[in-house]
Amino acid sequence: MADTRFKKTPLHYLQYLGLKLFCALVALLPYRLAIWLGCHVTGAVRFVMPHRFKRMVCDIEKAFPEKTPQQAHQIAVESWRNMGVIFAEFLQLTHMSKEAFTKHCQIVGADKLREAEGKTGGIIHIGHFTNWEAFGLASSVYGFDKAVLAQRVDNPYVDEEINRLRNIFTGRTFYSNHEDKPFFTCMRWLKKKKFLGILFDQNTVSGEVWLPFMGRTAAFSPITALLAIKMQVPVFPVKVNREKDGRLTCRVENPLFPPTEYSTQNVRQFTKTLVGYYEQWLREDPASWLWAHNRWKRQAEGDRYLEEHPEERV
């Protein structure tokens, strides 16, 4: 099944060529112009995908019932625009020297990672806020040996290009949806006392932990908690902020240490702790989150499961 899904086709190659051309043009633009263009072009794309935009507004209204429909609509617009800014920033940053890069993107709290480097290593707890890809690039620029756990996109040519750019300053990518045993691949990496980045706020299709998220049941992968407990490594929450002048600041918070003993209850409880960081960040700056992702796609399934298994409510 995986081989069929990710098989290269002529259409995939044409899509890839179109993307390469567009990327080359964006990379040639001055930095601020590229950001402005990404913001406004992507903001207009919402008119091409009205059903997805309507669902985003609906999700925002449910997460923030105190907000007016106009406020929810504006948050959705800003979230959509942020996707274009992310794309433009990512392309621009991958074409910079390391010296120029640090003028546009920096890590605050890098000393916390330095202290764990080579001793315990750890897991980077990051989500779809502001520009998560920028931190992956920044960690390599700062000299950290990291890998990321990501989902492979269906177009293999595009996926290879994204992976090349994502690791242009060094790094590795493990695929959660295209590895025979991604959990053990991650374990071997962490055993080397290195860093592993995991995007934690994606909907899962299997092996989930059902937890309330912004007032509604959502499926979360337990992989971060499982790895942290099994390997006894700290988890470093990282949030990326975009400053008023456009610079990106990646803030590394104090490490979270997992329970010392494995149990399904400890996995659920530690996962809930990690989810709490996302809820806090989302409430602080809702427009910077990727609302286009259908985070509560399996809410009805989760509600039914928890009704049948009340002991798993956390």
Spatial strand arrangement across the major sheet: 1-9-8-2-5-3-4
Structural class: alpha/beta
Q: State the low-pLDDT regions, or none.
A: none
| Largest β-sheet summary | 7 strands, mixed
Q: What is the rounded Rg?
A: 19 Å
The coarse silhouette is globular
CATH overall fold name of the domain at 99-312: Glycerol-3-phosphate (1)-acyltransferase
Q: Total number of β-strand segments? A: 9
Average per-residue pLDDT, rounded, comes to: 91
What is the helix/strand order? HHHHHHEHEHEHEHEEEHEEHH
| CA(first)-CA(last) distance | 35 Å
Query: Which architecture name of the domain at 99-312 does CATH use?
Result: 3-Layer(aba) Sandwich
Q: How big a fraction of the residues is strand?
A: 5-15%
* Helix amount: 40-55%
Q: What is the helix tally? A: 13
Q: Provide the CATH top-level class of the domain at 99-312.
A: Alpha Beta
